[in-house]
Design brief:
By secondary structure, the protein is α+β, with helices and mostly antiparallel strands. The protein has one domain: Glutamine Phosphoribosylpyrophosphate, subunit 1, domain 1 (4-Layer Sandwich), CATH 3.60.20.10. The strands form 2 sheets. A 6-stranded antiparallel β-sheet has the order 2-3-1-9-8-10. A 6-stranded antiparallel β-sheet has the order 4-5-6-7-11-12, with helices on one face. Strand 6 and strand 7 form a beta hairpin. The two termini are 31 Å apart.
């Protein structure tokens, strides 16, 4: 179990405060007691707390591609990463670690938002592409790994837990009374709702892309009946 989080300001002249980011990341220390890391690129940042399982020594995140232009934070386990790694190496990609995280990163380089067909596993991840100036977040097909997001007029935030989003400060905590009704009726809150109006769950089998302050949410997989 790991934790990921990040923020992107809509005003590109703003800079992410590292202390604020660290506070939000530390709110998930219980998810990843072994390591932590973050990347800041002006108005954008991504961070993670890591529970070391694969490549314990070399799997520090965020991980970057060969040109240091694309960066990923990842929570999960990719069951077919060794096969995917070999395929990507045959296409010329150079790997710096033995992690499954890096296979996702290089597969994104190859296929962009069409990468999901190759991913067999449970995951939540975020990729910042400094070339395209885009942030991609995604969740596995069945939603085993959690991922929440928040948007207001100034910023977009994502995290593995709501408490991490709240730790950024200046968050609209208005309750969603329909979600409260759902909880009292069904004993859970169906996605994409949460108890807060402006905090949403990214639904299973979906990705969210933010580029030029425009958010696109799409399903990449659904059940066959």
């Amino acid at each position: 179990m790991c934790g990921i989080t990040g923020i992107i300001y809509k005003d590109k002249s703003r800079s992410v405060d590292s202390a604020m980011l660290q506070r939000a990341n530390d709110a998930m220390t219980h998810r990843g007691p072994d390591d932590s890391g973050y990347y800041i690129d002006g108005h954008v940042s991504i961070a993670m707390r890591r529970l070391s399982i694969i490549d314990v020594a070399g799997g520090h995140q965020p991980i970057s591609n060969e040109t240091e232009q694309i960066h990923i934070v990842y929570n999960g386990e990719l069951y077919n990463y060794q096969h995917l790694r070999k395929t990507l190496q045959q296409k010329g990609h150079r790997f710096k670690t033995k992690t499954d995280t890096e296979s996702i990163l290089h597969n994104y380089e190859e296929k962009g938002t069409d990468l999901f067909a190759d991913l067999n596993g449970m995951f939540a991840f975020a990729i910042w592409d400094s070339v395209k100036q885009s942030l991609l977040i995604a969740r596995d097909r069945l939603g085993i790994k959690p991922l929440f997001y928040y948007e207001d007029e100034e910023k977009f935030i994502f995290a593995s837990e709501i408490k991490s989003i709240l730790a950024y400060g200046d968050i609209d905590k208005t309750l969603d009374h329909h979600a409260l009704f759902d909880f009292l009726t069904f004993n859970y809150i169906p996605a994409p709702k949460t108890i807060y109006q402006k905090i949403k769950k990214l639904q299973p089998g979906h990705y969210l892309l933010i580029q030029n302050n425009k958010i696109t949410i799409r399903s990449y997989w659904s059940y066959d009946y």
